[in-house]
């Protein structure tokens, strides 16, 4: 993947592409909460929001499942994935925290399998804007390879089904993101 394509994905994921100076995104707020988790030894009140942490983990896990859908998650894919997630989160957490979360997600996937992880994600994400934020990042990760593979397509459909998001909403979001990311290239086909 070309560096300029990665940068465009990062800009789109953080809302900078055609942005209107809006408030921080759902994922950025959740990432900030994730980054501010108190240590195990902390006794000072922090205003910590465990739901926001769970939401952030679910969003990142959905994107991770899409990124690993084809069974490959090499160093290059991991770097692109990390950059997209970090930009989506408006760089609200240290890279080391994200790397630790990726390792944790890989362990959960190996133990539980995709079906149980998708079910867990669905339990963690309830509001419509949270579901769209999750799908936005997952679709951007899929678009990072310049085409959405059949396995990525199937995983996104499973997420939509588990989240009770109509496929028509997913198609609309995908077309919007495709247009932003690939303004000078043909659209990634939408199956179905």
Short summary of the structure?
The protein has helices spanning 3-13, 26-35, 50-67, 75-88, 95-112, 114-124, 128-143, 150-163, 167-181. By secondary structure, it is an all-alpha fold. It has one domain.
Question: How does this structure look, described?
Answer:
With 192 residues, the protein is mostly helical. The protein has one domain (3-38, 46-181). Helix content is 66%, strand content 0%. The protein is built from nine helices and no strands. The chain has helices at 3-13, 26-35, 50-67, 75-88, 95-112, 114-124, 128-143, 150-163, 167-181. α3 packs antiparallel against α4 (75-88) and α7 runs antiparallel to α8. The two termini are 27 Å apart. The model is unreliable at 16-21 (pLDDT under 50).
- Gyration radius, rounded: 16 Å
Low-confidence stretches: 16-21
How many beta-strand runs? 0
Overall average residue pLDDT: 80
The assigned structural class equals mainly alpha
